[in-house]
DNA sequence: AAGTTTGTCAACCGCCTGGAT
DNA sequence: AATCCAGGCGGTTGACAAACT
């Protein structure tokens, strides 16, 4: 037996909501609350189906909605959550009070996907796109792509490359367990990232792992490692206040242990390059 | 100025889930 | 156990605006 429609659609209004309809819905909900969405349109005097009322309230009218553009920090968090959860928009949205799943889904489809592709990252798998599979067939040079992703600012391009080199060296130091040197380099990297509000991906040449490093507003450097062969990913973060304490030692150890578990996937090759 | 393309996002559709009976 | 049903979810559409030719 087929599913019954949620309501009798005959005579019901569709399409964009008018101010008058919005007003009726807001007034009704604020005065009566929500017991049953099916009854809301009847009781509120609206020629809409219950589902339509629910959607309008949740996505547009409820008072606790956060308006305005998503910040870069929120965007980075969405990317991180999407890597873990996939297209589970409501789960992702639950991490952002005042943001709706619809809003985040739209933002992902219209902006973040493009941004990731520009950086050479497959938005579906979150792994680097191999140059041969790169969707941008226009033979853009690496520096042109970097410029585009950073708003065409020469200075930032140069710092972006320097930061990548710093992080690559830091990882090499970690690999050699030279913590004090790694601490110094990571601190430099952190400062550079924070001062230029940027993120970047580095990737081992001829290997299957990639690294995403970024800073965010609470002064942390996060490093996500993705291993395409093992289909694993992991994330480690350091905070400014812990970068000179024993916590960093733990951080270095956790990176070490994670990477040694990935041995055999080519991580030991340190001839890394910027990958866009 | 006019026509076309591209980007954005509110709203809809249909399936899924879980509680009630 | 089977069925019904409301609410929830993710994919998709289409109207509108902005950018481009």
Give an account of the 3D structure:
The chain has three domains: 19-61, Arc Repressor Mutant, subunit A (Orthogonal Bundle), CATH 1.10.10; 72-118, Homeodomain-like (Arc Repressor Mutant, subunit A, Orthogonal Bundle); 131-274, no CATH class. It is built from ten helices and five strands, in the order αααααααααββββαβ. The chain has helices spanning 19-32, 40-44, 50-61, 72-85, 89-93, 101-118, 142-149, 154-175, 179-196, 246-261; strands spanning 199-204, 209-215, 220-227, 232-239, 272-274. The chain has a five-stranded antiparallel sheet. The longest helix has 22 residues, at 154-175. Mean pLDDT is 61; it is low at 1-5, 132-171, 173-249 and 258-276. The structure holds a DNA duplex (21 and 21 nucleotides).
Number of domains: 3
- Spell the H/E element sequence: HHHHHHHHHEEEEHE
Distance between the termini: 52 Å
Strand content: 5-15%
Helix content: 40-55%
The radius of gyration is 24 Å
**Strand order within the widest beta sheet:** 4-3-2-1-5
**Which of globular, elongated, flat, extended, rod-shaped describes the shape?**
elongated
Total number of β-strand segments?
Answer: 5
Point out poorly predicted stretches: 1-5, 132-171, 173-249, 258-276
Alpha plus pi helix count: 10
Please describe the biggest sheet, giving its number of strands, its sense, and whether it closes into a barrel.
5 strands, antiparallel
Q: What structural class results from the helix and strand content?
A: alpha+beta
Protein name: Myb-related protein 315-like
Pfam family, one: Myb_DNA-binding
InterPro entries: Homeodomain-like_sf (IPR009057), Myb_dom (IPR017930), Myb_TF_plants (IPR015495), SANT/Myb (IPR001005)
GO molecular function, one term: transcription cis-regulatory region binding
């Amino acid at each position: 037996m087929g599913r019954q429609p949620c309501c009798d659609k005959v005579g019901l209004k569709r399409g964009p909501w008018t101010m008058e309809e919005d007003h009726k819905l807001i007034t009704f909900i604020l005065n009566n609350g929500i017991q049953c969405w099916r009854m809301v349109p009847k009781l509120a005097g609206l020629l809409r189906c219950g589902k339509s009322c629910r959607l309008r309230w949740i996505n547009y009218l409820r008072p606790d909605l956060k308006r305005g553009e998503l910040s870069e920090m929120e965007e980075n968090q969405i990317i991180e959550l999407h890597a873990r959860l996939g297209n589970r928009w409501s789960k992702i949205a639950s991490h952002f009070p005042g943001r709706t799943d619809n809003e985040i889904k739209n933002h992902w489809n219209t902006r973040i996907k493009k941004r990731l592709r520009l950086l050479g990252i497959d938005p579906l798998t979150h792994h680097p796109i191999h140059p041969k599979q790169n969707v941008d067939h226009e033979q853009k040079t690496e520096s042109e792509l970097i410029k585009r992703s950073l708003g065409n600012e020469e200075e930032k391009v140069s710092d972006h490359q320097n930061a990548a080199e710093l992080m690559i060296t830091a990882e090499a130091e970690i690999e050699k367990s030279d913590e004090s040197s790694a601490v110094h380099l990571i601190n430099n990297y952190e400062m550079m990232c924070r001062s230029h509000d940027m993120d970047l991906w580095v990737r081992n040449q001829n290997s299957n792992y990639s690294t995403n490093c970024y800073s965010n507003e609470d002064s942390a450097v996060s490093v996500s490692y993705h291993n395409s062969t093992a289909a694993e990913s992991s994330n480690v973060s350091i905070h400014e206040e812990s970068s000179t304490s024993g916590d960093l030692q733990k951080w270095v150890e956790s990176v070490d242990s994670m990477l040694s578990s990935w041995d055999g996937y080519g991580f030991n090759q340190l001839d890394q390059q910027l990958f866009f």
